[in-house]
C-alpha cells in the first residue's frame, strides 16, 4: 500500500470535516433540529390566475331554405289550423304540448317532437318569447287581392313602405280584430314573413289575407274601380277620419311609414286625405297604433 495512502488513513480528520455524532436513543433533538423539522417548504410563487373558461354556446341549427320558425302558443296553433300552411317540424315541451292540445285538439297535421326548453336557443333569437313551442314551416303565399275582396267587403289597409315586421304584425292583429278584408303590402320595401312578425300578429298572420302588389298607386285605382273610397292618413289633412267616413261604400285606408308618411303618388291617387284628431302633446302616432284607432272608427256603429 502506498505510503501516502497509509498516512492519510491514520491521520485524525479535522473538526470541520467531522460528521455530527448521531443522537443517542431517547435523547431530545437539539433546538436547531426541532426548528428545521418544523420549517414549512417554500410555497411556489403565485402566477397569474388561470382564465375562466366561458361556457360554450350551443351550436346554432341551420334553417332550411324557404322556411321560417313560428313560435308562441297562439301563433303556432293558428298556423296548424291553417290549411294553406306547409309544415315541416313541430317542437314543443311537455307543458306546451298539453297547452296546445287544450287550445287545438288532436289530431294535428304533423307529428310533434318533444324537447327541453334549452333546445329553442339553438334556432331562435335570445329575445324570442316562444312559450316552449315552435313550428318550422314555409311562408304563406300572397293572396290575390281580388280573391280577398270577393270574400269580404270589410276595410282594406294599404301599407306604404312600412318596413318594421313588428309594426306589420301589430297591424295584422288589429285587422283581424276589426274584420278587415285584407292588408296590402308592396313586393319591395316591405318585410318578408318572419317569426317576429307572426309573434306580433298573435295568429292573425294566418287569418287575415295578405296581398303583395308591385305598384300601390295602381292598387288604389283597382280598389276605386271595385267601389272602395280610398283615404290616406295624413296629419296635415283638413278633415278627420270621423268626419269623412262614408256610410254608403267600403273604405280602403292607406298608411305611410311613421317618419316619412305617404309618398306623393299615393297621396295624389287617394280619393281623400284624412287625419286622426290627436293633441299637440305628440307629433304623431306609431303606425300600428294609428291603424288600430282608424279601424275602430271605420267599423264603429253610429
UniProtKB/TrEMBL annotation:
Keyword annotations = Methyltransferase, Transferase
Q: Which domain of life is it from?
A: Bacteria
Q: Where is this region: Disordered?
A: 1-61
Any transmembrane segments, and where? none
Molecular functions (GO terms): RNA binding; RNA methyltransferase activity
Q: Name one GO cellular component term.
A: cytosol
The chain positions of domain RNA 2-O ribose methyltransferase substrate binding read: 69-143
**InterPro entries with a match to the protein in the record:** Alpha/beta_knot_MTases, Ribosomal_eL30-like_sf, rRNA_MeTrfase_TrmH, SpoU_MeTrfase, SpoU_subst-bd, tRNA_m1G_MTases_N
The biased composition feature labelled Basic and acidic residues covers 51-61
Report the SUPFAM superfamilies cross-referenced here: alpha/beta knot, L30e-like
Instruction: Provide an example Pfam family for this protein.
Output: SpoU_methylase
Q: Does the keyword rRNA processing apply?
A: no
Which residue stretches does the UniProt record annotate as biased composition, category Low complexity? 11-33, 41-50
Q: Which GO terms describe its biological process?
A: methylation; RNA processing
Do you know which NCBIfam families this protein is assigned to? rRNA_methyl_3
What is the protein name given in its UniProt record?
23S rRNA (Guanosine(2251)-2'-O)-methyltransferase RlmB
**Which species expresses this protein natively?**
Teichococcus aestuarii
Amino acid at each position: 500500500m502506498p505510503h501516502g495512502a497509509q498516512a492519510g488513513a491514520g491521520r485524525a480528520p479535522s473538526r470541520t470535516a467531522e460528521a455530527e455524532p448521531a443522537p443517542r436513543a431517547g435523547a431530545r433533538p437539539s433546538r436547531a433540529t426541532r426548528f428545521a423539522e418544523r420549517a414549512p417548504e417554500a410555497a411556489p410563487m403565485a402566477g397569474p390566475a388561470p382564465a375562466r373558461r366561458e361556457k360554450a354556446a350551443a351550436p346554432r341549427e341551420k334553417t332550411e331554405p324557404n322556411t321560417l320558425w313560428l313560435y308562441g302558443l297562439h301563433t303556432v296553433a293558428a298556423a296548424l289550423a291553417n290549411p294553406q300552411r306547409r309544415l315541416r317540424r313541430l317542437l314543443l315541451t311537455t307543458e306546451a304540448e298539453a297547452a296546445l292540445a287544450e287550445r287545438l285538439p288532436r289530431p294535428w297535421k304533423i307529428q310533434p317532437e318533444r324537447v327541453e326548453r334549452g333546445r329553442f336557443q339553438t334556432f331562435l333569437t335570445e329575445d324570442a318569447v316562444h312559450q316552449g313551442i315552435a313550428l318550422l314551416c314555409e311562408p304563406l303565399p300572397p293572396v290575390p287581392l281580388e280573391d280577398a275582396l270577393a270574400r269580404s267587403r270589410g276595410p282594406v289597409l294599404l301599407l306604404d313602405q312600412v318596413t318594421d315586421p313588428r309594426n306589420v304584425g301589430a297591424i295584422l292583429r288589429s285587422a283581424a280584430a276589426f274584420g278587415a278584408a285584407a292588408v296590402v303590402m308592396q313586393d319591395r320595401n316591405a318585410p318578408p314573413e318572419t317569426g317576429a312578425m307572426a309573434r306580433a300578429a298573435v295568429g292573425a298572420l294566418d287569418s287575415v289575407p295578405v296581398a303583395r302588389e308591385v305598384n300601390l298607386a295602381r292598387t288604389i285605382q283597382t280598389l276605386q274601380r271595385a267601389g272602395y273610397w280610398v283615404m290616406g292618413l295624413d296629419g296635415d289633412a283638413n278633415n278627420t277620419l270621423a268626419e269623412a267616413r262614408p256610410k254608403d261604400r267600403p273604405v280602403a285606408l292607406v298608411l305611410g311609414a311613421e317618419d316619412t308618411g305617404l309618398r306623393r303618388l299615393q297621396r295624389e291617387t287617394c280619393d281623400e286625405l284624412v287625419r286622426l284628431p290627436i293633441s299637440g302633446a305628440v307629433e304623431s302616432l306609431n303606425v300600428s297604433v294609428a291603424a288600430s284607432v282608424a279601424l275602430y272608427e271605420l267599423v264603429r256603429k253610429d
